[in-house]
Write a structure and sequence with these properties.
Blueprint lengths: L1 E6 H4 L9 H18 L5 E7 L3 E2 L2 E2 L1 H12 L5 E2 L3 E8 L15 E5 L13 H5 L5 H8 L16 H4 L1 E5 L2 H14 L5 E5 L6 H14 L2 H4 L3 E6 L4 H11 L5 E5 L2
Parallel strand pairs: 1-2, 1-9, 2-6, 9-10, 10-11
Antiparallel strand pairs: 3-4, 5-6, 7-8
Helix pairs in contact: 7-8
């Protein structure tokens, strides 16, 4: 089996609604084709989608949309030289602990962090007209959570006007699963789709565990593949250099 680990918001950031079903299916099909190109001796693919699926214990609106999208796409079974079966799952449980479901992965908080201004870039006109310049107005308004709008007769408070959304535990779940799948004897390879640096330490640990699981020669047949969506050359060079000391990690560009 090949396990595909997808940081959904990082990789599928442009999938917003039901109308994106053709685009979503095409992207999943391309992922399956990349698995065929880069892995050997497998006939099953487990595609795992990670995101903030639960606000408390209730599915978020985004999660409901993705559920509908998954019901409309047809990716498996894939028949070419060999028949490949597979599953696509919105992950709420760890690979190694499937019986425990993790809710509370999507959280809405009041207020936003204070906006910072690069004063070396701001011109003199803005500096002399801070009460009119949107940059300085926002800077001042976000100074404190209980800051009131400066416009006369407006009683709005910063924490009531602005909301911020956070995913909780999602990166940790991805890191845990990257490490867990390496130890599973049924897994022939791991394909991670994300260029989030938060996951990089788990790749390094997975590489070390891979050496411990296999003898040196056998480890060459098992790949940890990182699919990055950022096509900017400098960014990809940075990722390659950062992960270069660790064996069995291959980086491929994804459109």
């Amino acid at each position: 089996m090949v396990v595909v680990i997808i940081d959904f918001d990082n990789y599928f950031h442009d999938i917003k609604g039901i109308d994106d079903s053709p685009k979503f299916e095409l992207a999943l099909t391309e992922i399956v084709e990349e698995c065929e190109k880069n892995f050997k001796n497998f006939n099953e693919i487990s595609i795992r989608l990670y995101g903030g699926w639960y606000q408390e214990t209730t599915l978020t609106k985004q999660a409901s949309i993705i559920q509908q999208l998954l019901s409309q796409v047809s990716v498996f079974p894939k028949v070419k030289d060999n028949k490949i079966k597979g599953t696509i799952e919105m992950v709420s449980s760890l690979f190694e602990i499937p019986d425990v479901k993790w809710h509370y992965t999507y959280k809405v908080k009041n207020g936003i962090g204070r906006v910072r201004i690069d004063h070396d870039i701001v011109d003199e006109f803005c500096t002399e007209n801070k009460h009119q310049c949107p940059k300085y107005v926002l800077y001042k308004f976000t100074e404190k959570k209980d800051k009131q709008c400066h416009i006369p007769n407006c009683t709005h408070i910063h924490k009531d006007v602005f909301k911020r959304i956070e995913q909780k535990m999602v990166d940790t779940m991805i890191a845990c699963d990257i490490v867990s799948v390496i130890k599973d004897e049924n897994v022939k390879g791991v394909f991670v789709l994300s260029d989030d640096q938060d996951h990089f330490p788990s790749y390094a640990l997975a590489s070390k565990l891979l050496k411990e699981r296999f003898k040196e020669r056998e480890a060459e047949s098992f790949s940890i593949i990182l699919g990055v969506t950022n096509n900017y050359g400098e960014r990809n060079i940075f990722i390659s250099n950062l992960l270069n000391p660790f064996d069995n990690i291959k980086i491929i560009p994804m459109l």
